[in-house]
Specification:
transmembrane, DUF996, DUF996 domain-containing protein, 8 helices, 192 residues, single chain, mainly alpha, disordered C terminus
């Protein structure tokens, strides 16, 4: 059974998702296309190895990561909106520290909620990639999932967590490129 499409979708998607953040104006669109291609690759792999849980876990991860992004975005927009409405920039000159405290509190709450969703999503991504690793015998998927998960946990210590996630993104490209063209039929019986 073939994994050619999954290999192509996954490797191109992983490349686009990592490059998208570095391209002005259309970078977000490129990243979204990359994530969708990875989603299609995981779906293809789950069909080939006959394990729905692989795709379901990845889909849960995708939804939770998207939720984390929107929670943080909503918190940021809310804080900016409240700031503008209250005229906080002018009030700061008048030593309005209570308003500044509310802004910081709003950002912290939004950031913590987003972080929790991101960590949960990374756990499901790790589960999905561990299953792919078992079914395809490509061990780099297991390492990629682990790096994402540990990176997400350590994201509070921005430098360390972000670095681990970037390394995970690079290994994700390698993992998809390492997929075999075909998978042996007996491999699909194991773990399914």
């Amino acid at each position: 059974m073939g994994l050619t499409q999954a290999k192509t979708y996954g490797s191109v998607g992983a490349i686009l998702s990592i490059l998208g953040g570095n391209i002005p104006r259309i970078g977000n669109l490129i990243s979204i296309i990359g994530f969708i291609l990875i989603l299609l690759a995981v779906k293809e792999i789950s069909l080939v190895v006959n394990r729905e849980d692989i795709f379901k876990d990845y889909l849960v991860a995708f939804i939770l990561h998207l939720g984390a992004f929107f929670v943080f975005l909503i918190a940021l927009i809310s804080v900016i909106g409240i700031t503008v409405l209250q005229g906080i920039f002018w009030n700061l000159a008048g030593k309005d520290l209570e308003s500044l405290g509310q802004i910081i509190k709003g950002l912290l709450i939004g950031g913590i909620l987003a972080w929790i969703l991101f960590v949960l999503g990374s756990y499901y991504l790790k589960k999905s990639y561990e299953s792919i690793s078992i079914e395809t015998e490509v061990g780099i998927f297991r390492t990629t999932g682990l790096l994402y998960f540990v990176g997400a946990i350590l994201l509070i210590v921005f430098g360390i967590g972000a670095l681990l996630i970037i390394i995970g993104k690079i290994l994700e490209i390698v993992a998809y490129l390492s997929l075999p063209e075909n998978i042996k039929k007996e491999m699909t019986v194991r773990g399914g």
